[in-house]
Amino acid sequence: GAVVSQHPSRVICKSGTSVKIECRSLDFQATTMFWYRQFPKQSLMLMATSNEGSKATYEQGVEKDKFLINHASLTLSTLTVTSAHPEDSSFYICSAADTRKYNSPLHFGNGTRLTVT
Amino acid sequence: GQQLNQSPQSMFIQEGEDVSMNCTSSSIFNTWLWYKQDPGEGPVLLIALYKAGELTSNGRLTAQFGITRKDSFLNISASIPSDVGIYFCAGQLSGGADGLTFGKGTHLIIQP
User: Fold this and answer.
1) For chain A, which end, N or C, has fewer CB atoms within 10 Å of the first or last residue's CB respectively?
2) Least CA distance to A113: which residue of chain B?
3) Which positions 36-75 of A are in contact with B (Cβ < 8 Å)?
C-alpha cells in the first residue's frame, strides 16, 4: 500500500534556528502533498498544500515566510520552519495521495515532533 | 474554514462491546475518511467512502457515507484492546486535490 515517509521523527532546536522536515512518497508519485500541524490533545489542522513545481498554497493564518515549503520532485516535499520559537513546538504531519489513481485516499507520514527551546 | 463535529469526544467501554461514533458537517463533502491515530504517530487510514449512501466494511469496522453528504458514522464491533486510540473522521471536497478537514477525534478507551 501507499507509504509516506517523514524525517526526522523528532527534533529539538534552539529558538531562532531553522528546521527542515522532509516528506517522501515511497512507492507512488504525488503532485500534491499536504502539511498539517497538531497540538497536544487536538485535531490535525491543515497548514498548507504543497504543489510540485509551483508555489504552495497556505491556509488562512499560516505565515508563508515562516513555514517555507518546497516540492521539487514528485516524491519529495519539505517544510522548513524558519526562526523557530517555542510556540512553534508541535507535531507536524504530512500526507500525500497517489496522483495516478483516481480517488486515491490520503496517507500520512508518522509525523515530526518539533520542540523549540 | 469548515468544521466537522465529531462525537463522542471520548468513550470508556468494556472489551467486547460495540462502538459507534459519528461526524456531521454544515457543508457537504465528496469523500469521507476515517483514521486511527496512536500516540506519537501519524493517522492510519481505516476506511474511505466516496459515494453518498455507501456502506463499507473493513474487518470489524463499518462506516457509512450519509445520504446528505454531510455526515458519516463508524462502528467497531466486538472491541479488543488494540482498538484503543483516537479516531478521526475527515472530509474532503475532491479526491487528491484538497486537504482534509478533520473532526476533533474520539478517544476510545477499553477497560479490561
Assistant:
1) N
2) B40
3) 36, 42-46, 49, 59-60
